[in-house]
Amino acid sequence: MFKKVLIAEDMDFINSGIKAELSKLGITQIDDVQYCDEALLKLKSASLKNAPFDLLISDLSFDKNYIDQKITSGDELIKVVRKEFPSLKIAVFSVEDKEYRVQTLFNEHKINAYVWKSREGLRELKKAVLQLYTTENIYVSPHVAGSMRKSQAIEIVEYDIFLIECLSLGYLQEEISTILKEKSWSPTSVSSIEKRLKFLREHFNANNPTHLVAIAKDLGLV
């Protein structure tokens, strides 16, 4: 069984529940943090001491408070952690069930498990941890498993989300082109942006850019 697990969760009572379930599996060292920045620091520190963590369990949403944080969400934390620690097992434990968000975590950030935080969530998390230790298979809660069977959202990439975010902020296509050039993203031409936005409107059956932004917000894309 995993020997060393880190929990990134800002609710004390949930931390306690996770620890209780992990202890039943015989995991002896379980650390928890309430901030994403602290989670990354703990992972780095453990690695430098040649005592790395075997598994990260992270929520996606973290409440903001008076302490400034560079990393403010579980999504951002996982993105950074996956680059720094490519072999670390990562499990998400969250109430979030938006299809695109789940797909992105698996397809782009290569998480190993997604457990929906529900009434049976802790027992399901225990099941997921056991599977991650004994196999190389991913674990997906039944509640969100449908998102992994739908291929249409896989076509939506970070570039597309950026375009929609720019629309939501009221930028014109010419302005978006300038911003893309500054970020060294491509394609940057106005015609390419126009074609991609047309594809996105058709993809989501949106009547106009405003409708596209509204649909994207409903889906949790922006």
UniProtKB/TrEMBL annotation:
Ranges for domain Response regulatory: 4-132
UniProt entry tagged with the keyword ATP-binding: no
A GO biological process held by the record: phosphorelay signal transduction system
Entry-annotated residues carrying 4-aspartylphosphate: D59
UniProt entry keywords in alphabetical sequence: DNA-binding, Phosphoprotein
Domain of life: Bacteria
Gene3D superfamilies cross-referenced by the UniProt entry: 3.40.50.2300
One Gene Ontology molecular-function label: DNA binding
InterPro entries: CheY-like_superfamily (IPR011006), Sig_transdc_resp-reg_receiver (IPR001789)
Protein name in UniProt: DNA-binding response regulator, NarL/FixJ family, contains REC and HTH domains
Organism lineage: Bacteria, Pseudomonadati, Bacteroidota, Flavobacteriia, Flavobacteriales
